[in-house]
Structures are given as structure tokens and as C-alpha cells.
Amino acid sequence: MVSGLLEFLRDDIKKLPDVLFLDLNMPLKNGFAALGEIKRNTELQDLPVVIFSTNTVEDKIRNIFRDTAHYFINKPSDFMELKRAIYKIVVLMANKTIKLPNKEGFVITGH
Hints:
4-stranded parallel β-sheet, 41% helix, 4 strands, 111 residues, alpha/beta
């Protein structure tokens, strides 16, 4: 439940994760709504958020980029490709100088 996640994040701002991965298609509240709530909260807005989804409609990806997610993972059906994509994100996020990617580097795949 996303509201439980947001409460959890707000409860201990000093112990935020290094990066938060959100599925676009979650029950009760989708990834768009969760991302919006996180980015509108002044204490959470700098938390790096990565959205992943099998939905690769260009308009949705553009909206996620505009809403300041850090990256979008085109969720592959192959588990090893998903692991490679997550690894790429972790390596990119380890570079603290990167605030937000440009549009060309926004979509990450496991290829």
C-alpha cells in the first residue's frame, strides 16, 4: 500500500533509502500518484525515485520524466535483464554528482 510507504518514509526522514523503486502499476495507488506525493513533499522531494513498468507508451514515459523521476526501467520479461537494469541504476546512483538524467539517458534497459 503506497500510503503506508509514504508514512514509512516520513516517519524517519534521516533513514531514507538511497533510491526508491516504484512499479507504475500498483494496486490502490499507481506509481504516478506515489511519485507525485513524494515529489510534492519537501522532505522527500530529493529522494531518487526509479519507476519501472512493462508499459512503454511514450506519453507515459514523458510524464514520468516531467514528474522528476530519476530513471525509468522498461521492465523486461527476463529476470536476468531486470537484474542488469537495476544494477545499471545502482551504479548510476552511486555517482552523487548526477541529479537528474537528460531525456536520452532516462530509459534504462537490461541489454
